[in-house]
Amino acid sequence: MVETSLTSQEKTTLALGPFVGEIGHSSVKLWLTVEAGDADKNVFVTLKLLEQGPKSEAAKKDMKRIIVRTIASPVVVQSGQIRCRQADMGVGTITMGSLEPNSKYSYQLWQDEAHEIPLDLNPGKEGSLSDSSGGLQPEDLFFWTLPEDGYGRQLDFLLMSCHNPQTAPNDEANGFGVWRQIPQIIRHNANVRFAILAGDQIYADEVETQVLAERDPLTRKQLYLTTYKKFWDNEYYRKVLCSLPAVLMWDDHDITDGWGSREDSFRTDLPQAFTSEWLELFGTASEMFSLMQASRNPAPLSSSYASGFDTCFKVGKAGFVVADLRTNRNSRKFTKTSSNGKTVYEGQIWDPKQLQAIKDWVEQNKNDIHTLFFVTSVVFSHGAPQIENWIMDFWFRVLNFVKRLEKFRSFKKHVASFYSKVGDLRDDINDSWGSEVNQKEADRVLDFFFELENPADGGKRLNVVILSGDIHTPGYSTIYSSATKDNETRKVPEPEGEREGRAVIPHIVATPVAYEPFSWVGEAVFRHLTKVVKLGASGTYTSQVSHHFCYRNVVVVSLRNYESDESHLKVKYYLEGYPEPQVMLFDLNHGAHREAIKWPQQERNTWVDRLPECIKRRLPKSWFPQEKESIPAQPPTDAFS
């Protein structure tokens, strides 16, 4: 063999990745980024077929033992080239097709077209969060294609969000403790086929000030690229995503904290419009998201991301809607006059075109699917409305007080700690579907979901499951509709053999994978104050918050269809420090109705009335309304009606 060498100028240096993106039964997308330097770069790829399972998962039903054929002497079966353009910050992707279904492939990366000089998988990086104890090895680079039919009786995938290891670094893995355990979790759940990362893959808050002040577009992009490198180059993180296909959607921290809901991002002369500096920041974050994350996803619903980064895809009989809730978000989009004559705002979570595109996709594909997963980066409900309304009323006073403290040198450290750990809570409250400014948005999307479960024309029903992140505490709640009782929404007689209208949608929350979890004390307060939360403005929808865990985590979502009329959802919460997962089971077909237990009123006062007078005097007046029933001692009797 002729010895080949490269000059230092020709050498290609890996910056991030490699990561596996969109996967199908005959294709895969591979992603990486290299140090762009002063020129475009090329990375060469080869594939080797390692193992083959049954092409169809349905075949498993007829087999006593699943036979996976191991290739004795794997050889290169396909090759390709990843073009990494300097203009794209060194990012490159390749989609490789004509692959065998349900098969394991290894992939190799090379610096030269002759495939003689391997690409260094672990170049040194300054400012890295990695502990650099091992790095990637060639055997880490592999993937499994999907079966031809997507799945047979069971589809498993990972759900996670909120990745900021800097907030909880004392786990012997520099904050990547959950990531370190994911390969073991996958081994216990061998059917896991891909992952959904539902928001906040980075926390760009730390470069917000620099980006807002910077006028050069390239420098702004480099600031974001530095943040991506900081959060993604850890070996535990890379060992997962170099072999597990992932679909990614952004949330506010991929842009900066509270994007679209931040009070300080709006103009003073046009209070519904963003300042030019904030629009430039968003434009840079959007461009970087399209390169670093969206380029790995299935095709967007709108050409060239014109309306947003929404994407939809199918895996067998399961449909997935991954919604972009940041591109068109504006918590001041609309104004109205309140009953007291003041001007108040109504928010926009997404453009109506986005929802319509999703409706069109579902309509085109609903005959091929029976369960629709809606991935939302923000929750529908979690907190206690009375606390959140109180915060919205007085928090600006708290911020003004803190701002005055900044003038005193002795308080600067405490003020900095306040901003980093607390900050302006109003944008967090306005983010969720259940917030007051987003009530009409919640009605529109929930109308759509329950229409899928209860089609007015008597057509095919779909199960709907909501998947979310955002709130730094995993768990679940249940969304109820009062409009489906006794088939009130159906305009035709109930088809023979079908049950009455479905009124329940499970809401699964997986967060954080690498962020300091929400305080168990705060969670206990929320659970004590809140059992039922009203959603939307119509009075049709409510949410019952059932349970949340205050631990970092990753969640395995398992859709199981054992018989034609059996559809179950099994959710396994892998909580940091717990050797066994917490498991929740949902019967999507037969459990999809309300029970609406009418608990008798207890002869006692509300929790507020039972507080000592010295404490009650310090609480806001909004906690003591005229009718005590509005602060219940137990679930309201009309909670589901």
Number of helices: 12
What's the pLDDT, averaged over the residues? Answer: 85
Radius of gyration: 26 Å
Strand content: 15-25%
Oligomer: single chain
Residue ranges: pLDDT <50 for 5 or more in a row? 486-499, 626-641
| Head-to-tail CA distance between termini | 78 Å
Class from secondary-structure proportions: alpha+beta
Could you describe the largest sheet, including whether it forms a barrel? 8 strands, mixed
Global morphology: globular
* Biggest sheet, spatial arrangement of strands: 12-13-16-17-19-18-21-20
How many DSSP-defined strands?
24
Share of helix, binned: 10-25%
Features:
disordered C terminus; alpha+beta; eight-stranded mixed beta sheet; six-stranded mixed beta sheet; single chain; 641 residues
Architecture blueprint of SSEs:
Blueprint: E1 14-23, E2 28-34, E3 41-52, E4 69-70, E5 76-84, E6 91-96, E7 103-110, E8 142-144, E9 154-160, H1 177-188, E10 192-197, H2 208-213, H3 217-232, H4 235-241, E11 246-248, H5 276-292, E12 311-315, E13 318-322, E14 330-337, E15 343-348, H6 352-365, E16 371-376, H7 385-405, H8 412-421, H9 426-431, H10 439-453, E17 463-468, E18 475-481, E19 504-509, H11 520-529, E20 532-535, E21 541-548, E22 553-560, E23 568-575, E24 582-587, H12 613-616
Describe it.
- It is a single chain.
- The protein is α+β, with helices and mostly antiparallel strands and 641 residues long.
- It has helices at 177-188, 208-213, 217-232, 235-241, 276-292, 352-365, 385-405, 412-421, 426-431, 439-453, 520-529, 613-616; strands at residues 14-23, 28-34, 41-52, 69-70, 76-84, 91-96, 103-110, 142-144, 154-160, 192-197, 246-248, 311-315, 318-322, 330-337, 343-348, 371-376, 463-468, 475-481, 504-509, 532-535, 541-548, 553-560, 568-575, 582-587.
- A hairpin with a 4-residue loop joins strand 1 and strand 2 (28-34).
- Helix 3 packs across helix 5.
- It is globular.
- The model is unreliable at 486-499 and 626-641 (pLDDT under 50).
